[in-house]
């Protein structure tokens, strides 16, 4: 299978590339600034909307896993033009290209398309983003649904794990605790933490089987960020007492966050061979990957 992965340097994208190469696929790895470690590097800056469609049509992949996004939630609130371009308009161009060459597109979306009032949201629950990031990712979803035929929207929540170009929740916490630094973590925000390698496996299965529709491809545990942090600390042998509780209303973010953006993953658990993992199991795997 010829697979094109966008965001191939990212926390998720680099694992999709790695897994696809391990499985013997031909991997076209698109990047913005720094070429990726694996796959055939293809420079594709998603702000250059005009070149996206032609580049993809020329490369003619069988499937695309579109992980690239402007993921800085507060940054999206203040750079709205850029956020809309990268997360929505570029996705539209990818969807149009996919339609033209008859490829399959898996678009990685987010729990932040929900308002967080309900929690354990199912695939058909009504989206209602409360941040500009969430809004742009939902616009991306709409383009995928309307501009391409063979598509899957795969929604995740708090992706964590090794690699990528910046720290994520888990690596930030492990770094801080290993240096004896006290941290504050939210005890009233609920999420479905998703290990990057677990998600990469699910995405490759979706692409390989050309599954269509919306799937919640997150971790299998609904958990408060604080409790997740304590589990992380214990597994990695750090002192959980360094983790202090904070509340969402103490935060001074530019963008609002949903209070409970956990996802119901039962459809995915039923359908896929690669199952969404519970936090305890995923953390054991992350520990073993160190
Ligand atoms: N992280 C989370 O907690 C989370 C939760 C739910 C859903 N998601 C979704 O999951 C996907 C992957 O997230 P992630 O955590 O792996 O993100 P990430 O580590 O921030 O990686 C994002 C990737 O997108 C690329 N990118 C950004 N702007 C680009 C542009 N203008 N042109 C081309 N590439 C560009 C980045 O390249 P550079 O490094 O060169 O900028 C990077 O490779 C995203 O679609 C995100 O919306 C993430």
Percentage of residues in strands: 15-25%
| Count of DSSP H/I helices | 10
Bound molecules: NADP nicotinamide-adenine-dinucleotide phosphate
Average pLDDT over all residues = 98
CATH homologous superfamily classification: NAD(P)-binding Rossmann-like Domain
What profile does the largest beta sheet have? 7 strands, parallel
How many domain units?
Answer: 1
Question: In the CATH scheme, what's the topology name?
Answer: Rossmann fold
What's the number of extended β-strand segments?
Answer: 13
* Class of secondary structure makeup: alpha/beta
Spans of at least 5 consecutive residues with low confidence: none
What does this structure look like?
It is a single chain. The protein is 40% helix and 18% strand. By secondary structure, the protein is α/β, with parallel strands linked by helices. The protein has one domain (2-161, 194-221, 262-278): NAD(P)-binding Rossmann-like Domain (Rossmann fold, 3-Layer(aba) Sandwich). The strands form 4 sheets. It has a 7-stranded parallel β-sheet with strand order 3-2-1-4-5-6-11, with helices on both faces. α2 packs parallel to α4. 50% of the residues are buried. It binds NADP nicotinamide-adenine-dinucleotide phosphate (NAP).
What labels would you give this structure?
290 residues, alpha/beta, seven-stranded parallel β-sheet, 10 helices, binds NADP nicotinamide-adenine-dinucleotide phosphate
């Amino acid at each position: 299978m010829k697979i094109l992965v966008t965001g191939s340097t990212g926390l998720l994208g680099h694992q999709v590339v790695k897994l696809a190469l391990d499985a013997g696929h031909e991997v076209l790895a698109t990047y913005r600034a720094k070429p990726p470690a694996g796959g055939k590097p293809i420079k594709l800056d998603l702000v250059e909307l005009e070149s996206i469609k032609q580049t993809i049509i020329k490369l003619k992949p069988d499937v695309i896993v579109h992980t690239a996004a402007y993921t800085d939630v507060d940054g999206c609130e203040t750079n709205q033009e850029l956020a809309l371009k990268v997360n929505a308009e570029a996705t539209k161009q990818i969807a149009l290209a996919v339609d033209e060459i008859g490829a399959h597109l898996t678009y990685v979306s987010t729990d932040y398309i929900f308002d967080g009032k309900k929690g354990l949201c199912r695939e058909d629950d009504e989206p209602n983003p409360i941040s500009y990031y969430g809004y742009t990712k939902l616009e991306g979803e709409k383009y995928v649904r309307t501009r391409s035929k063979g598509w899957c929207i795969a929604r995740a929540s708090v992706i964590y794990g090794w690699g990528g170009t910046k720290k994520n929740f888990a690596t930030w916490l492990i770094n801080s605790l290993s240096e004896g630094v006290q941290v504050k973590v939210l005890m009233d925000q609920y999420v479905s933490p998703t290990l990057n390698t677990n998600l990469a496996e699910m995405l490759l299965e979706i692409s390989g089987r050309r599954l269509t529709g919306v799937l919640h491809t997150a971790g299998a545990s609904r958990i408060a960020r604080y409790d997740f942090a304590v589990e992380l600390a214990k597994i990695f042998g750090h002192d959980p007492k360094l983790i202090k509780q904070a509340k969402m209303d103490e935060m001074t973010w530019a963008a609002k966050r949903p209070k409970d953006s956990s996802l119901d993953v039962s459809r995915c658990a039923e359908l896929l061979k690669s199952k969404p993992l519970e936090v305890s199991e995923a953390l054991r795997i992350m520990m073993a990957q160190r």
